[in-house]
Amino acid sequence: MILNYINWNVDPEVFHIGGLSIRWYGILFAASFVFGYFIMLKIFRREGISQELLDKLSIYMGVATVVGARLGHCLFYQPDYYLRYPFEILMVWKGGLASHGAAIGILTALWMFARKAGKSWWWILDRIVIVIALSGFFIRTGNLMNSEIFGKASHVPWAFVFMRDNPVPRHPTQIYEALSYLVLFLFLYFAYFRKNLGQRAGLLFGIFMAVLWSIRFLVEFLKENQVDFENKLPLNMGQLLSIPFIIAGLVIIWLSLKNKLSKKGEIQSS
After folding, report:
1. Mean pLDDT in the chain?
2. pTM of the predicted model as reported, rounded to 2 decimal places
3. DSSP string computed for 22-56
């Protein structure tokens, strides 16, 4: 029966030099920043904004993504362990990054950046989500190369057998998410460059929030739980954390369409 499915046994390590290991996940993670930088550079040039400001923004984004994702994993999924061994929070190379934590970290860092740079928070958010959606595609592809964050057992014709785990056909949920995020990126890119929807404060950001976290919520039904305590919950941690983001996205879309979001990053009263 196994031969009827896709046997996946890719080595997560590309090569190593001495004690240095180069892994597919690291390459794809770095690629997300490289491609994101050049897309943002195109946006900045289109709007007549200096590359120097983009370089500063990139630093904020890089630090916020790693710190937020790491703290999110440690505090949302394994708080008991990491509160006992807090120094292991710094051991990022051992794995453990959470996208919800990255989202919180990025939102916080961009708010700080907007205040310092004198830009509207909505202006930054509406543009940065274009490249964040693309980053989601790269990161989930990296998860596929690591044979991690896979789905539940399934007998669909496209099921993957992750040979490094156990010979059971499973939903390739990494691919489901990666392709969904790629489509979302293409939509946001088209909406900004061809439809100029970036001119309506908060709209692209609201669409991103509502759609991306809805995708995450739905795909979680097909995933294996990451930690044991999730087995006792009606929804897993990924779904519970996604709900506030989805609601926020829908509210922001409504406020944007009603012209209640000011270009200064505030909510206007009627």
Report:
1. 89
2. 0.86
3. EEHHHHHHHHHHHHHHHHHHHHHHHTT--HHHHHH
